[in-house]
Design a protein that fits this description.
With 104 residues, this protein is of the alpha+beta class. 57% of the residues lie in helices and 24% in strands. It is built from three helices and four strands; from the N terminus they run αααββββ.
Length: 104
């Protein structure tokens, strides 16, 4: 196998990997729930079962509301998710290889 053929094979394989692991809107909603839960727990510093239940409930509600205003731009190898907070403010996330990276 020539060096060029191997390079093409690696690029194609990497592209297929990215396409298969491009996160869905449902994956982004799950990510938001986890992030909101983590942020809520850090802010509240409440412990115990009741604190966890409150944090999970609040984070699920916030994530559901945020996902309702989320726009996904699917580029097949990756996606850009934009949450419109208000008319002048938004948050963007890069979804790639099953991960989410805040962009702003």
């Amino acid at each position: 196998m020539s060096r060029n053929s191997l390079s093409v094979l690696l690029v194609v394989t990497f592209g297929i990997f990215l396409a298969v692991t491009n996160p869905s809107t449902e994956d982004f909603k799950d990510y938001l729930k986890e992030e909101m839960f983590r942020e809520y727990k850090e802010e509240q510093k409440s412990g115990g079962i009741l604190g966890d239940l409150l944090a999970k409930g609040a984070s699920a509600i916030i994530a559901e509301l945020a996902s309702a205003t989320t726009q996904r731009e699917n580029y097949y190898l990756f996606s850009i998710y934009t949450i419109q907070i208000d008319t002048s403010k938004s948050r963007k996330y890069l979804g790639i290889a099953g991960q989410f990276i805040p962009l702003n």
